[in-house]
Structure formats: C-alpha cells, structure tokens
Amino acid sequence: MDSTAAPLAAATPDFSFLGLFLQADPIVKGVMIVLVIASIACWTVVFEKIVRLARARSQAKAFNNQVQTGGSLDANEKGISGHIVQAGLEAWRDQDPTESRAERRDRIERAMRAALNLEVKRLQTGLPLLATSGSTAPFIGLFGTVWGIMNSFSSIAKSQDTSLAVVAPGIAEALFATAIGLVVAIPAVMAYNKLSGDVSRVQSSFVSAIGILGNRLARERNASRAAAE
What is the per-residue pLDDT across 169-211, written as a single tens digit (0 to 9) for each? Predict the structure, then answer.
C-alpha cells in the first residue's frame, strides 16, 4: 500500500505558481519570463512617475501663485518653473524696436512654451512602455496559452490517454501564461491613463501661468523702453 502511494504522490503535478513555471515548456517559460520583466519595468516607471509628477504639481502650484501675485521669479530655480522663467527672460532681453507689444508678448510666450514642452516630454518618458505593455502583454500571454494547449494535445496523442491527469498540467501552464499577461496589462493600462492625465493637467497649469507671465514681461519691457527714451 505504501509502495504504490509514493509513486502516485511523486507523479502528482505541482499547481503552485513556482511549480507551474518549472513544469512549463521552454517556450512557455520564455513567455512568462518576458512578461515578468515587462511587469517589473512597468512598475519601475509607475513609481518613478509618481515621484516626478508630485514634484511637478508642487512646482506648478508655486509657479501659478508667484505669477498671479506678481512675486519675483528666479531663473536659477531648479525644475520646470526655473527653465520656463529662464527661457522667458532670455526672450525678454532680446530687443527689437520694430515689434509691437503683442508681438513681443507672443515671442516671449513661445519661448516659455517651448521650454515647457521640453520638460513635458521628459515627464512623458516611460509612458510609451506602459502603453505598449498594456496592449501587447495579453497577446504575449495568449501565445503562451496556445503553445501550452498544443503541448497538451501532443501529450494526449502520445499517451493515448484523455484523462484529466494528462491534460491538466499543460492546460494549467497555458492558463498561467494568460493570467500573467493580464496581470501585466491591466495595471499598465490603468497607470498609463492616470499618469497621462496627470501630465496633461500639469502642462495646462503651467500654460495658464505662462500667458499671465508673458503679458507681464511684455509690459515691463515696454515700460523700460519708455523710461529709456
């Protein structure tokens, strides 16, 4: 009785996560490894963006307060606001006696928006990885699923046995690959939508302040020219 129980226990497949991975076909293992690496990369991007966007929101709020209250702006300040102010002051220093106040304001605002767009592109770095992982991970997992089911049918053909003990391990490995693909894709899509919206809101906040600051710098330039004359 004991001698027959040991082989049966040894033949029982391991349906734990680690067991499903170790028992899987090399192709299915490769699919799982790719998906796990993609998941780690996505979560790295998510945490990095959470930190950077929190800092950017704080800078946008401070920048808006300074602009609306007419406070002094420091071009040497680190971060997005410092780059915007620096670009605006450089455009402000460029004198063209022939341009009107509206043209001067437009030129200053274009310089500041160009600096903002460069910073926004830096904030968006990594977001395409989330979008790509969210759209492709389910299909990569599905490839592992198809391959695992093919192995299950191959096992049935070789053993001439359609019992659940023969079919179950391959099917479980296949479904596990699909599950990993969904675990990667769902958070990636949700994070992409959330972070993209946060980037857009930060950009809009800076753009509204740039309009006020551009008018202020153009007015100051006109006042300085009038005083010089």
Answer: 677 777 888 889 999 999 999 999 999 999 999 999 888 888 8
Buried b (16+ CB within 10 A) or exposed e, 175-209: bbbbbbbeebbebbbebbeebeebbeebbebbbeb
Give 148's contacts (C-beta < 8 A, 6+ positions apart). Answer: 24, 25, 28, 170, 171, 173, 174, 175, 177
Q: Which pTM was predicted? A: 0.78
pLDDT tens column, 68-92: 877 777 666 778 888 888 888 887 7
Residue found under tokens 């796990």: 36
Domain ranges in the chain are: 18-228
